[in-house]
């Protein structure tokens, strides 16, 4: 017991605090996606950092110190000669980014970090870092700061954050980076007109389509949900989406083995056919086999409570596209 208490003792410097923060969540650096920081871990980390700061523990000072850690990392400049030392520095950088994300859930802190230049540092150094564990934490920090903060969103957009995040979403080899980057994209474009225009100009809908076709389950779910949200809130962009062949792509996704994110795909199709002759014609194309698929899907899921919304989307889409075309309901309303 005494030994355990000594192990739980607060470290004596900031580097020790940050390294322990990363060790506590090191599983997130592998293929598995990270779990949220536990409340116990958050409180312990706050207490440890406050003790280390010794009189300079205001949150602004803590953010400045974390920025110094990130700046000192210089991950893109390290060569093979510094690998052993670099591993320690990367651990400190990861811990600094996690702690900044926690602090910046407070909107005032997010604004202060922007003013201090922390977001510019994150974009220039962390999003381009050779370690995926740093890249995804950088994207997470951007998302934490941008969420519900128009001032921060506009700053990030003006600095070119969106195309960098779209590129990470589309092609980063680390699965967690792709998910966190898309989360940051969502925070920059939802209910943000400037962000949506930038999203359109950088072919963001194509990035979402490829995300839905990936083998990353969380990326598929978040991509389909963001697509549904954007075309629901901004129906004026449906023609743009339809001109890309989105209906054909979405139906091809539905023909893959069933997954929970198909609910969002069906919702998007329902939105695309509403008040849109082009959307209806696309869905009615016999080559897609959509009507048969909808009948079979609704029959397979009928009576399973967790899929009732998906069943309702099937019925709604079938009614909009195929009502009256054939007399047989094929069990849709069983």
From TrEMBL:
The terms describing its cellular component in GO are: endoplasmic reticulum
Provenance organism: Hucho hucho (huchen)
Using the record's annotation, list all stretches that form the Nucleotide exchange factor Fes1 domain.
Answer: 14-113
Among SUPFAM superfamilies, the record links this protein to: ARM repeat
Keyword Iron assigned to the entry: answer is no
Q: Name one Pfam family in it.
A: Fes1
State the UniProt keywords alphabetically.
Answer: Phosphoprotein, Repeat
One GO MF term? adenyl-nucleotide exchange factor activity
Q: How does it assemble?
A: Interacts with the ATP-binding domain of HSPA1A. Detected in a ternary complex containing STUB1, HSPA1A and HSPBP1. Interacts with PGLYRP1; this interaction blocks the cytotoxic activity of the PGLYRP1-HSPA1A complex.
What is this protein called in UniProt?
Hsp70-binding protein 1
* Annotated signal sequence range: none
Note the InterPro entries from the entry: ARM-like (IPR011989), ARM-type_fold (IPR016024), Hsp70_NEF-Inhibitors (IPR050693), Nucleotide_exch_fac_Fes1 (IPR013918)
**Which domain of life does the UniProt lineage start with?**
Eukaryota
């Amino acid at each position: 017991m005494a030994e355990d208490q000594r192990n739980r003792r607060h470290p004596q410097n900031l580097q020790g605090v940050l390294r322990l923060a990363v060790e506590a969540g090191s599983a997130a650096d592998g293929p598995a996606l990270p779990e949220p920081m536990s409340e116990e871990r958050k409180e312990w980390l706050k207490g440890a950092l406050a003790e280390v700061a010794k009189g300079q523990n205001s949150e602004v000072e803590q953010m400045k110190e974390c920025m110094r850690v990130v700046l000192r990392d210089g991950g893109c400049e390290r060569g093979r000669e510094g690998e052993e030392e670099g591993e320690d520095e990367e651990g400190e950088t990861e811990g600094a980014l996690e702690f900044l994300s926690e602090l910046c859930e407070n909107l005032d802190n997010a604004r202060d970090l922007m003013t201090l230049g922390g977001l510019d540092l994150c974009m220039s150094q962390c999003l381009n870092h050779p370690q995926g564990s740093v890249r995804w934490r950088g994207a997470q920090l951007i998302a934490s700061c941008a969420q519900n903060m128009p001032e921060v969103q506009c700053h990030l957009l003006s600095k070119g954050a969106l195309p960098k995040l779209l590129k990470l979403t589309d092609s980063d080899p680390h699965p967690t980076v792709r998910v966190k980057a898309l989360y940051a994209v969502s925070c920059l474009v939802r209910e943000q007109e400037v962000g949506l225009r930038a999203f359109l100009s950088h072919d963001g809908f194509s990035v979402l389509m490829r995300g839905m076709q990936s083998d990353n389950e969380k990326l598929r779910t978040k991509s389909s949900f963001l697509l549904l949200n954007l075309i629901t809130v901004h129906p004026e962009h449906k023609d743009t989406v339809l001109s890309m062949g989105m209906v054909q792509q979405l139906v091809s996704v539905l023909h893959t083995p069933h997954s929970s994110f198909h609910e969002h795909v069906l919702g998007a199709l329902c939105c695309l056919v509403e008040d849109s002759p082009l959307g209806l014609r696309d869905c009615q194309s016999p080559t897609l086999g959509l009507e048969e698929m909808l009948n079979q899907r609704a029959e397979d899921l009928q009576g399973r409570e967790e899929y009732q919304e998906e069943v309702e989307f099937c019925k709604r889409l079938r009614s909009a596209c195929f009502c009256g075309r054939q007399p047989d309901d094929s069990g849709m309303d069983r």
